Please model this.
Amino acid sequence: MQVIETLDHMRAARSALRRPIGFVPTMGYLHDGHVSLIHRAHAECASVVVSIFVNPTQFLPGEDYERYPRDTPRDLALCEKAAVSVVFAPTPAEVYPPDFASYVEVTGLQDRWEGAIRPGHFRGVATVVAKLFRIVQAERAYFGEKDYQQLQIVRRMALDLCLDTDVISCPTIREPDGLAMSSRNVYLSADDRQRAVALFRALSAAQSQLLGGETSGSSLSSTMKDLLVKAGLDVDYAAVVHPSSLEPLERIGREARALLAARLGPVRLIDNAPLRPATWSETQK
Ligand code: PAF
Model:
């Protein structure tokens, strides 16, 4: 496994890799969710590149950029074990030289939900992912559904900017009690870790209510919000939206997506799930 820190070395390395290349962009502190993306990339590609880069431009002032969990030796050992061909781990100065001045915005999609609460966050995500796509030039890139809005934004951007990398979405990997895996789960106290399962319960409750015949988006949103509040979480949003435009849905006809964001003390958690009416079938996908 090669560990590469500069753009020039990455460009040189990519031309020696067997194609197709599968790319897994990460901010490190890898968990089973990331490992599942690497495995999927292996199943579909001849070489796998993982990037590890805590991207400063997607953190707002006062957010956790400085204390974001980092453990590069452990990450590299995990990548080695997962037979990754190249780990690209640039420094911030390599990605953002002092005269850096160009940013990518995905208008509309970037402005609601997470974007409304963390203005500028998706501009940072889209910019770094566009750069990484250009540097790695993989045929496919693998993203978890856990960051559902990010996934839609990256997909739109890759199409709009003809980046020639297919964006592949992969299911959220959960702890046995249903909590979605996230590098930030380490911030949860033991008590809050118990409470955090309320997000998964709220998503499951909305799906059950839909199967019971309730198709009103606002009723399902209220169900989820009430459950979160009862469990002691401060809710940022509990929404039922169209799966690709992310516009709120008043009535669920075909598939919808439930999006949640809530705070437990200083820790913000997000989660989401598809909402499928009883009449939904795989062929409608
Ligand atoms: O999901 C993440 O880990 C990050 O937002 C990403 C896509 C690696 C961009 O920094």
